[in-house]
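hiii so my PI (J.) wants the whole complex modelled not just the main chain, which honestly fair. so below is everything: two entries, each one labled with what it is. i double checked the lines twice but i was tired so who knows lol
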Amino acid sequence: MINIIEDLEIGELEETNYIKPIKVKFTLNGVKKTWEAVRSHDSVAILLYNVEKKAFLLVKQFRIPVYLNDKSIKYTYELCAGLVDKNKSIEEIAVEEIDEECGYKVKIEDLKKITSFFTNVGVSGAKQHLFFTIVNDSQKIHNGGGINDEQIELFFLDENKIDDLLFDESKAKTPGLMFSLYWFLKNKDKLGL
Amino acid sequence: MINIIEDLEIGELEETNYIKPIKVKFTLNGVKKTWEAVRSHDSVAILLYNVEKKAFLLVKQFRIPVYLNDKSIKYTYELCAGLVDKNKSIEEIAVEEIDEECGYKVKIEDLKKITSFFTNVGVSGAKQHLFFTIVNDSQKIHNGGGINDEQIELFFLDENKIDDLLFDESKAKTPGLMFSLYWFLKNKDKLGL
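here's the output for the full assembly
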């Protein structure tokens, strides 16, 4: 994945559609406090394991907030994921994201919920629901890559190369991805894999 | 930990000290884009293992962004952690946070860097540096709990109770904590524990 970034401009955030910055005042155990926060959507993320390739299907994506922090990072390694921003169940959204981003057809009943967690407790407080699903090549229905110019690239991570990715700090990744890969290793036998 | 929350008010975020909402415009591979983001600080987090108690020392903390998302969550389970917001090395900041939050005296050379990751790639792009350290009871120098009204409570997680915490979705936690606990399980023998 080669990403060419040009014409970068950073301005004030006035009207917002996706995130909402807020100032919160409250009293905690009798002590008055204020906090700067951002409201954002919850999300779903799915670890996809291609049983024929013995590899995980991850997505590579340009993330402007990460790039602004470290200009050497032209893409991040992530789980297939999406926002819970429509009136559908988290399972329905997970299945849609697997289709849109990865091009695989998965049934809701083939999703296994792993657990959930809060990805940014200090700022956004958004929750992520984590799923696992096994796919095979016959479920591939199109190339994936996301919709609306998402510019997502697919990446197969060999199941024997997990630590090569996790401990290479030049490769930006999320802790949810990291946890899910170690969950897989711990549960591989139980999953019959 | 009982947290009583009163007088909750949510207002516009006008002047900010901790986070900076921004609107970013850029061209990615020839396609013009805009993105709503927040600049915030990188952080350090430390998994502390008390070798005498055979337990991890975690912190319980009230997090207003999480509470706004789900009013049933009065505290989160987290790693000892702190912002990289001063002119010190990440190792120096880690040692300070272990002292302030947990009340243990740890030497920089006893910190083991695990890896790093990006905790919120879509909004803040902040990086977290993850460390591990082994402590014993003789290193306990005070009660901990944080400074400036941080109201942090310490919590020992028995090393045999990891999955009880990770898969209880009523207990809010971060994916960095979850990954670090599974990293410990995978490396326990190598660490001589």
